[in-house]
Amino acid sequence: FLPKIGPDQSTSVLLFERNPYYWKVDPEGNQLPYLDYQEYTIFNDSDAIALAAANGQIDEQWRHIGEPKYRPLMVDNQEKGDYRLIPTFKTYANAVAIKLNLNHKDLVKREIFQNKKFRIGLSHAINRQAVSDTVFAGVAEPANICPLPDSGHYRESMAKQYLEYDVDLANKYLDEAGYAKRDSRGIRLGPDGKPIRIAFECIDTESLLDVGELVAADWKKVGIDAVFSELERSHHTQQILANEHDIVLWSGDGGTRGDLYLNPRIYLPTSVFESEHATRWAMWNENPNAPEAQEPPESVKRQFKLYDQFNGAATEAEQIRLMDEILDITEEDFHVIGICWPPATITLVKNNFRNVPETMILGWSYPTDAPVGVEQYFFDN
Solute-binding protein family domain: from which residue to which, for each copy (predicted)? Predict the structure, then answer.
């Protein structure tokens, strides 16, 4: 499909027209794609998308409508909206990856966030079962960052490390991290003698806002001034690019083997934008002389070297060995905190929209839903 460009093109609808020179044909020799065009409506928020989908105004949709808060609406309106719901499984390692900015511009926050005992304490302070019950209808199993059980790289020790909800244990680690002193409000004091404050800013997508509010409340209970607020997405992006963010919550990529191999950005900082826990280490890996690059610790340097070898590996066995060694370091360093395994979601498909698989795989590296043969989708009128 090719984008339609011209003076009559709407700013609220994107139109992609069939490419008559597309190289594929079906088994009977018919030119693909079957559809004459694809039309994408631009909505202002996810509520509007969900309502349009429930009213039968969308032919296929998975983004946003699968969130737990919309699930009853989607289920209850199947007959009215003349659509079906397809089970959809995510390639992510975790429903929510919590990424403290280990490369923060603020040197005091950088020191605090790089303290492993501090991160362990925060992990033990999270009531993951309460998050699962409140946000994911109780179906999401608590887990820390780790490849999925069927990925070939799952390790129980990694998924379950520092997972227990234990306020006393959380306080013990935070004390041992060097932040036992508190102010009159009970907020822990950092190495500069000032209260430890984390600007817990989240964008409203894929339940991140709901999870963020609960986790921030948990961290307040152990003496962290976690100030929760909603953040507009463009500002969120600007913060990351400027290295001014305290924390980022996002889906944890790298759950399936393919996603892990293509996109290991939460296991080692491979992206100067999307490895939000260590963008300046990623920058150093690309160019050590870049003005804002920060030299990473030896363990991360080792990961970079191993990943270079992984990308040049000649055999599958060598790839597996190298990735396992990378994950050994990830497990030991514990840079990113997880919440739970990603629960299954749904894709909405109109009943007359055909050749859509009966199950879908949802992932960014995958990328959904391009590999399932969208050129063979058609309307059964």
Answer: 13-255
